[in-house]
Structure formats: C-alpha cells, structure tokens
Structure prediction request, 246 residues.
Amino acid sequence: MRVLLLGGTTEASLLALVLAQHGVEAVFSYAGRTESPVAQPLPTRVGGFGGVAGLAGYLQAESISHVVDATHPFAAQMSLNAIAACAAAGVPLLGFERAAWVAENGDDWRLVPDLAAAVDALPITPTRVFLAIGKQHLADFARKPQHHYLLRLVDAPGTLPLANATAVVARGPFDLAGDLALLREHQITHIVAKNSGGTGARAKLDAARALRLPVVMIDRPHLPPRRVVDSVAQVLGWLGHADLGV
Ligand code: NAP
Prediction:
C-alpha cells in the first residue's frame, strides 16, 4: 500500500500524523500556496501535478495504491482532477471532508451559491466588511469599492487588489475572544465567509451571532458524487486499517 494524501487542511494533518505513527507508507501533497506550510511527519511534495494527466502519471510513476483527498472543501479543481485521474488510473479515491456549518438560533446568515453572489449580497451603502475568504479571490470584491474590507491572511500580502482594505496576518485556529475583539476593533458590520466547516475558523460565526452581525455565507462548490468520510477512523477503515484505531 502507498497512499497519496492531498492536503492543505487540519484534517489532512491529523490523518498524516496517524498514518506516520502506524508506519503506513504515504506521501503528503501540498499545493504550495503558503510560504511556510505546516511541516508533516510524512514524505512531502509541493506543487501542482499538471492537471488530470499529470496526476494520473504521478499515480502510476509513484505506485500509488490509494488517494485520500483531504483538500479544502473549496479546492474544487484539485478534487475534480483527483476524481478524473483516479478513474483513469484505476486507483481508489476517498474524499476526507469536514461537515459544513449549519446556522443556529440567533444567526443571521444570507446563503449565497458563489463569490459573485456574495459580492451582490453586500449593500450599496458603505459598510465595514470582514472578508474571511483567504487571498485568492479578493479581486472579485473590487466591484464594490465603497466598502472597507478587513482581510485575515496567512502570509503578509504584497499589493492588495482592494484599495480600501486592512490586512491582518494570522494563522488559525481562532477563538471567540480573539474574533470578538477583532470585529469590535475594526467596527465590522458584515462578514463574508466560505462554508468551510470545522472548528478552526468557526469562532468568527459565534462572534457574529454574539454581536448580531449578518454573515454572507458562500456555499461549497458542488462536486460529482464520490465516496466521502469525515473522520480519521473512517479513512483508516477504508484503507483496510480499521484495526489501527485512532
Ligand atoms: P484548487 O483551485 O482546487 O486547485 C488548483 C490547482 O492547484 C490544482 O489543479 C492543482 O494543480 C493544485 N493543487 C491544489 N491542491 C493541491 C495539493 N494538495 N497538492 C498538489 N497540488 C494541488 O485549489 P485551491 O483553492 O487553489 O487550494 C489550494 C490548496 O490550498 C489546497 O490544497 C487546499 O486544500 C488549500 N486551501 C484552500 C482553501 C480554499 O478556500 N480554496 C482554503 C484553505 C486551504 P495541478 O492541476 O497542476 O495538479
């Protein structure tokens, strides 16, 4: 057995630890988006494979027997490529993905299907927006330049595609006290978030509820049907290592 673990999430790091502890042969793969990615206890490669054909070739060249896609729920291109490449190479694929967040009593969420709809959902009148979507799609919000945008990024940004913006550099997990302080300090009136799920980025939603702030919540991109689990134990079961436990 030789596992390719497509990473970039807390779940991927958790799984990497368990595979390493139990001596399961595996390679961890990062896209290479952040300057100093979290070190992994597995042999690690960094960078794209070169599309579906590149990944299919990699699977063959590296004698990969199983692929676990533990990329972020919004990393849809990588997940689509994994589906196609694994089908082409005849390698079994498992998605490892945390459950989406669900609105609770007291939440004021406006659900939108994608980034463009999130921009549309912001008001016409100037507001102060916590734009909690990472760095890749900030330029989409240039269409609403009247707002002030607070950004939270893993790495110090170069030139920002938004003129009216403040960036704070921080890496999760985040907590309620910290996110309450951040929203108050920057006098935030609206939050834009991706429905990533999990605990590391959840505090902003709890803080929004406490402060009665509206959240524009972007739904996950839709993928073709594939086998998906949401726990390390289930991944181990799929790998035929249920005996290892966690
Ligand atoms: P994406 O749009 O789905 O992927 C674009 C391309 O990046 C892929 O086609 C692939 O290039 C390469 N790639 C992505 N993940 C890779 C991986 N784990 N190993 C090797 N190559 C990878 O993905 P994205 O939204 O740019 O996200 C990039 C990474 O950041 C992902 O690993 C994801 O887990 C992490 N991340 C994303 C988000 C988000 O909101 N999108 C949030 C947190 C973390 P080739 O076609 O050349 O193979």
About this structure: The mean pLDDT is 96. The CA atoms of residues 215 and 232 lie 30 Å apart.
